[in-house]
């Protein structure tokens, strides 16, 4: 539980208008980062990416009231290395993607990455803040 708290600082935004309900990601670091999103819809698991966010930038990744309680995030720090990751394995690829299904990633020609879970508490509007404290260290260079 403590690790999840360190991985992401997330909070629901109190917005008077239902039309403003969205899932929003904020890069609270000083680096440019790439973000992938995973979620379950009526047809099963979906992973999508990449949203490239500059330092201190936010972006809406899903517009409208949230349909699920849980969303999954994987992110990479492009400038300093490291990542925000977790235990929920989903498929990704180097270029922009939308991938249905989370199994057999390698056999289907995709990469596998661990996404961390975000519990929105069934709120209709949520913001996820990625911070330096949640980023794992970059592997040592040879």
Estimate the global geometry from the Cα principal axes.
globular
Q: What percentage of residues falls in helices of 4 or more residues?
A: under 10%
Structural class per helix/strand content? mainly beta
Order of helices and strands: HEEEEEEEEEEE
Distance between the termini: 33 Å
Work out the number of β strands: 11
Overall pLDDT metric:
83
In angstroms, what is the radius of gyration? 15 Å
Strand content: over 45%
Task: Give a topology summary.
Layout: H1 2-7, E1 9-11, E2 22-27, E3 33-41, E4 44-53, E5 58-63, E6 70-77, E7 83-84, E8 88-92, E9 97-100, E10 111-119, E11 126-130
Describe this structure in words.
This protein is mainly beta and 142 residues long. It has one domain. It has 1 helix and 11 strands. The strands form 2 sheets. Strands 3, 4, 6, 7, 8, 9 and 10 form a 7-stranded antiparallel β-sheet that branches.
Question: Top keywords for this entry?
Answer:
4-stranded mixed β-sheet, 142 residues, disordered N terminus, mainly beta, globular, 7-stranded antiparallel β-sheet
What's the quick description here?
By secondary structure, this protein is mainly beta. The protein has 1 helix and 11 strands; from the N terminus they run H-E-E-E-E-E-E-E-E-E-E-E.
